[in-house]
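Batch manifest line 302
LIGAND: adenosine-5'-diphosphate
JOB: complex structure
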Amino acid sequence: MAIRIGIITVQEPAYHPNRRLLEAARQTGHEGILIHPYRLWPTTAAGQLEVTGEHSARLPQVVLPRQGAQIGDACLALIRQFQLMGVSLVNDHDAVSVARNKFLTQQVLTAAGLPCPDTIFVNDPSGFFHAVDQMGGYPVVAKQVSERQGDGVLRIMNGNDARQRALPALDRRRGLMVQRYLPPEKRRDFRALVIGGGLVCAVSLIPAQGDFRANYHLGSDIKATALAPELEQTAVTAAAAVGCDVAGVDMMVDKDDRPFIVEVNYSPGFKGLEAATGLDIAGRIVHFAMDRYREKRESMGL
Ligand SMILES: Nc1ncnc2c1ncn2[C@@H]1O[C@H](COP(=O)(O)OP(=O)(O)O)[C@@H](O)[C@H]1O
Ligand SMILES: [Mg+2]
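JOB STATUS: finished
ARTIFACT:
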């Protein structure tokens, strides 16, 4: 039976993950549609949960939320609406609501006994300077809870730098993470892709000259790599702790081979991963989404 797979995204069909997921859906005999979160509205009417707006006449059976870190509360409400309407979600509302916020993610990971960089979550300049003291001084990393591609990650070198760059980035309502800085020369960076509780592939990333952030979109060098079994286990357990069926787990490993989980992406891009590994990642995601849909139907006795 052909299934309709909805991808929640604000990006164009040509955007790499969208293009690849639409192709993968088509190639497996299914249909992919892009759902713009601002054109389809959760609706409660006459005692029923519905969605109205674009695509409401052709609802998907499986939905992949892929709005990235900047997803807002309104889109979370749409995801929840789909879930309450019985649509299969990859990933579901609770997973997305934790993964979209790097500090909530660290809370969940730490509670699950997983290693993260030391972090103090502050919402006021006095908290920022308290955190710097606790970290033993500069440099520290100041990090927004919801940014992407390295945009919200600053390395703060001294008090002057803090006043010029960190404090203006500190919004009381949003908060700011102050994190122990691990320099690139004393660490290695990895991105692991976990789908359905198993590692699909991993890459190592080396920051571009002059940068400390190992994001693919910032020009980092990327290579397919195997992961040590403990690191693989860390990535798989991190995805499970956050509740993500599909997760891009960013990790750093220090000189003593101690891992630190940096974040769990609920809608990881996979252009670099496909290029580095030669794997059909879009196909894997679509395959998993179909399995999820079938399991759900079976569990409902359909
Ligand atoms: N505490 C830290 N010390 C040193 N480098 C860091 C630290 N946190 C993040 N980075 C670097 O910055 C990159 C981006 O940080 P991350 O938290 O993954 O945010 P983003 O969502 O922007 O990718 C990481 O992949 C890592 O290379
Ligand atoms: Mg990252």
